[in-house]
Amino acid sequence: MAAQVNETSHPLKQRVLRLNVGDITGAGPGYRQQASLDMPALQVAGDLVLAFLRGPFRLSRTREGVLLQGELLAGLRGECGRCLTPMLAELPLQLEELFTYPVASGVEFGVGEDGMLDLAPLLRAEVLIASANGLVCKTDCRGLCPQCGANLNDTDCGCQLDDVDPRLAALRQLLDEAPATSGPELEP
Question: What burial class does residue 50 get, using C-beta atoms within 10 Å of its C-beta: 0-12 exposed, 13-18 middle, 19+ buried?
């Protein structure tokens, strides 16, 4: 069940994320099947395009349906939330979701009567959760200067950043008045 395709100029449509699991639903509880994905640019939803999606996963038949477990790696193009540099983020996705079969009312994920399991809604939710805190090009990204807008990773703009929020001026005054010590003094 490995999907391998060549790099294309247009992203693959989300229909490639529909897996036929009819053979798994027809098997008894305890049946397992290993698979992997290796896909280039992929449109998961109208608002989400991945640069790639790859990794192994397992489908297991349970009494309630099909349990999907996997460790996928998704590529997401965007801008660094600190310096606005275009980047490709690699998001590790730990998947473990039960797709009910037959589909029960009020359940978010299920296997349709046609035996098709649609990964797109689960992947969209997991990618949005993984990227909720924003993308950062590197952990020590210094961002943009709030005065001149220079990328502080590339240059030291020389702007003075002593402007203190008026609401925090009293704290700044306390810091300025505090004696400079290198740490707690210990008595011999």
Answer: buried
